[in-house]
Amino acid sequence: MTGVEPSFRFDVDHGARLVRVTLRGQHKLSDVEDLTKARTEVLTETHWKSGEFDYLADLRATGVQPMDVAAAARFSLAQMPIKPRRFAVLAPSALTKMQVSRITDHEDLRFFTDEDAALAWLNED
Questions:
Q1: What is the pLDDT of residue 110?
Q2: Most distant CA atoms of the chain, gap in Å
Q3: What is the pLDDT at residue 1?
Q4: Which terminus of the chain faces fewer neighbouring Cβ atoms within 10 Å, N or C?
Q5: Measured between alpha carbons, how far is 38 from 118 in angstroms, rounded to an integer?
Q6: Alpha-carbon gap, residue 110 to 39, rounded angstroms
Q7: What is the pTM assigned to this prediction?
Q8: How far apart are CA 124 and CA 110, in angstroms?
Q9: Is residue 35 within 8 Å of residue 76, measured between CB atoms?
Q10: What does the DSSP 8-state code read for residue 17?
Q11: Quick count: other Cβ atoms within 10 Å of Cβ 46?
């Protein structure tokens, strides 16, 4: 997205065992490095183990990312210290969905355009 300052924010809902990351704008390699460090800190602070939490990536304020950024994001996701039970992505377009599906190999990944639908799916047993 042109004109939107690149940023990210993590929010943790301990009761729902949900980690949410909200991304905005067009990112650079240094942004992926910063996001990776922040995500590792957030996940470490939760003291959860793999499969004990869900992950929601809100990409509605982003666009398709440059190829080098997408490649770095793929490596970053593969290096997550613990893995979520379910991985929901709020994607603004088919192109974003395609890019994310190429960089993410989580076995329980789903795409949504509606946040309520994503949260409902994450809350299913």
A1: 95
A2: 40
A3: 52
A4: C
A5: 23
A6: 20
A7: 0.92
A8: 13
A9: yes
A10: T
A11: 14
Retrieve residue 87's tokens.
């991985």
Residue type, 75: F
Tens-digit pLDDT string for the chain (125 aa):
557 889 999 999 999 999 999 999 999 999 999 999 999 999 999 999 999 999 999 999 998 999 999 999 999 998 898 999 999 999 999 999 999 988 887 889 999 999 999 999 999 97
Strand order in the sheet with 109-112: 7-13, 18-24, 54-61, 87-90, 109-112
Please measure the distance between the N-terminal and C-terminal CA atoms of the chain and give it in whole angstroms: 35
Residue 28 has which token pair? 């650079």
The whole-angstrom separation of Cα 17 and Cα 54 is 6
Question: Which residue in the block uniquely carries the two structure tokens 């793929």?
Answer: 74
Picking from 23, 74, 22, 19, the residue whose alpha carbon sits closest to that of residue 45 is 19
